[in-house]
Amino acid sequence: MHQPVLAVDPRNSSIAIGDEQSVQIISVNALLAAPPVPSLSAAPPSLKRFSAAACRTACQFALPCRALAFAPSTASAAGGASAAVLLAAAGDPENVKLVDWRRGAVRRQLRNDAGYFLDLAWDPEGEFLAAAQREGYVCVYRLSDGERVCRTRFFKRIPVVSSRRRTMSWQPDGALLAVPGEEGEVFLVERLSWETAAELAGGEHLAPVILTAFSPNGLYLASADEQNRIVIWETQRGYAVSAATVKSGSSLPSSTHIPSPSSSLPLDNDKCCLSSLAWDPCSNALVVTGECGGVTVWKKPVPEQGIREDPKDPKSRILDLAPPHVMSEELTKAQLAAEAAADQQKGPGGAARGDLNPRDAGMEEEGLEEKEELTKAQLAAEAAADQQKGPGGAARGDLNPRDAGMEEEGLEEKEELTKAQLA
């Protein structure tokens, strides 16, 4: 039996459900008001219990729907309608349909020439749509004209009977697209050039990678393989900072350092493969779900105490790790504030102000006073010399009253600026 696919719109107001025949749009409010479902692994409830206002058909498929993705809320216009109201839907083995999900109208179709699609991923700006094909190719479509700008193979052909996924993930700023690899690697594809900018590997995954998810600030990437092993990568340096394996009934770790043996995450049923990874936007946590309905939360997947620059060298310096949910702008401001505070505590030669003994502190004060007196004496000498000269070296007595007044004002301004600089 084909498993339904789900997608939530960026405003969290509607949910798209794709089954064997169609894509239905359900209001979140109506879903919350409905009786709870006993288990995510149970058969999905009938959609007939919802009113026509709460549940409507977005589009039809002759074969099962395989992938859904709402366009980001900030997307620009594309396909004759605002891209912010577009839903990308891919069936088996039809073209990708761009649906105006509020009106239930198909605005455009993106051509497919190789089997069905496993995953769809909009870039954060809504300009491109990435689509992973069953044949192992990743296609990138430009939404302004519907043209396919890239088609590259990253993994082997997926059997028809397999439910294995190949979930891609865009970096929040849209600079990179993470694509799962066949040999346990993750490819980071650069936007616009569509070339592989980096490869996250190193033997952390011993099976094909099936899921990827960038952290909210884009500094980390979570990846999961077919053996339910999850690895957290620091994307700027390409280091694996922690790892865990999902097993039934095991203890929940706060974090596991590389290269220490991986700890385990509890899941209701570990016989099924993992189905999704999602970062908590407000804390250092990762939500993990399985195909059989299990859900678990990995708390503190990014170690708070940092990691060694070279994990194999115990003497290498320790790298501080920023939290995955703190945005880059906030991190930069915090770093600048810390540097400013540190500079205020330093004296001559970079020594901390509190570390100076009374004698050194007294010498520092005397040195500043002597410097100020010398500067004042130098200014006085320059002023006396300038009083004997006018513009272009003219004698003071040759200046007219207007030029003499301007000269006096200029000297006063220069002295005030110098005093302010000394202070």
Please characterize this protein's 3D structure.
With 423 residues, this protein is an alpha+beta fold. It has four helices and 28 strands. The strands form eight sheets. The protein has a five-stranded mixed β-sheet with strand order 19-20-21-22-23, with no helix packed on it. Strand 21 and strand 22 form a beta hairpin. The longest helix is centred in the last third of the chain and has 30 residues. The protein starts with a strand and ends with a helix. 31% of the residues are buried.
Overall pLDDT level: 78
- The number of E-state strands comes to 28
Q: Helix/strand-derived class?
A: alpha+beta
The rough form would be described as elongated
Major sheet, described briefly?
A: 5 strands, mixed
Question: What are the salient characteristics of this protein?
Answer:
alpha+beta, 423 residues, single chain, five-stranded mixed beta sheet, 33% strand, four-stranded antiparallel beta sheet
Secondary-structure topology with pairs:
Layout lengths: L4 E4 L5 E5 L3 E6 H6 L21 E6 L4 E6 L6 E2 L2 E2 L3 E6 L4 E5 L4 E6 L6 E6 L5 E6 L3 E6 L5 E6 L15 E2 L5 E5 L5 E5 L5 E5 L8 E6 L5 E6 L3 E6 L4 E9 L15 E4 L7 E6 L5 E6 L4 E5 L7 E2 L9 E2 L8 H17 L13 H30 L13 H22 L1
Parallel strand pairs: 22-23
Antiparallel strand pairs: 1-2, 2-3, 3-4, 5-8, 6-7, 8-9, 9-10, 11-12, 12-13, 13-14, 15-16, 16-17, 17-18, 19-20, 20-21, 21-22, 24-25, 25-26, 27-28
